[in-house]
């Protein structure tokens, strides 16, 4: 996996790509979060490979360069849709169905957990399961879990509620707060 750090208005994101595409976008760890066990496991798997293929490295680096470019454009206000390849390694079943549905939610629009549950075929009663899926989204911002709202408010967010509020304000979905304190 090729990785890079990207300074953004919401903090420094860690981005990881493989030959198949973008595999991880991770929020700043200094927000009281720790890397997910799966992210650490994947990193260790990558390090354990004794022989690296130079061609694969070049492909993964090209994927990384494109991911950095597209995220930079998003935060510069010149991109509203991501079209980079996504590496869904380790994501399957209902989780994959829901995240692929979510990837289609346009910039500046929102859906509810119930909307995603219903759209996935799991039924509106699976809203809580969808919430759990959002919490394990390996590709936040690109697969825009910040655009998912609870029926009665913002709902949670892996990057923190202030980050979710910032992203929604950036996309014009909610008025900006007076003091972000970021």
Provide tags for this entry.
182 residues; alpha+beta; Arc Repressor Mutant, subunit A; three-stranded antiparallel sheet; two-stranded parallel ribbon
The gross shape turns out to be globular
CATH architectural label of the largest domain? Orthogonal Bundle
Low-confidence stretches: none
How many strands? 5
CATH homologous superfamily (4th level) name of the largest domain: Winged helix-like DNA-binding domain superfamily/Winged helix DNA-binding domain
Class per helix and strand makeup: alpha+beta
What is the class of the largest domain in the CATH system?
Answer: Mainly Alpha
Mean pLDDT: 85
CATH overall fold name of the largest domain? Arc Repressor Mutant, subunit A
The tally of structural domains comes to 2
* Proportion of residues in helical segments: 25-40%
Biggest sheet, open or closed, and with what strands and sense? 3 strands, antiparallel
Order of helices and strands: EEEHHHEHHEH
> How many helical elements?
6
* Through-space gap between termini: 30 Å
Question: Radius of gyration over alpha carbons?
Answer: 16 Å
User: Which band does the percent of strand residues land in?
Assistant: 5-15%
Described by its quaternary structure, the protein is: single chain
The main sheet orders its strands as 1-2-3
């Amino acid at each position: 996996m090729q990785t890079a750090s990207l300074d953004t208005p919401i903090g420094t994101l860690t981005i990881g790509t493989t030959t198949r595409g973008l595999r991880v976008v991770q929020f700043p760890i200094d927000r009281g979060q720790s890397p997910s066990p799966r992210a650490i496991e994947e990193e260790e798997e990558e390090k354990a490979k004794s022989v690296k293929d130079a061609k694969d490295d070049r492909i993964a680096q090209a994927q990384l360069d494109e991911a950095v470019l597209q995220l930079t454009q998003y935060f510069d206000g010149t991109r509203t849709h991501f079209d980079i390849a996504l590496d869904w390694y380790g994501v399957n079943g209902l989780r994959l169905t829901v995240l692929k549905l979510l990837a289609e939610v346009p910039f500046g629009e929102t859906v509810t957990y119930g909307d995603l549950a219903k759209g996935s075929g799991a039924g509106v009663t699976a809203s809580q399961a969808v919430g759990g899926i959002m919490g394990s989204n390996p590709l936040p911002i690109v697969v825009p879990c910040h655009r998912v709202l609870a029926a009665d408010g913002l709902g949670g967010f892996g990057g923190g509620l202030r980050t979710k509020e910032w992203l929604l304000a950036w996309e014009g979905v909610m008025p900006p707060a007076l003091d972000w304190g970021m």
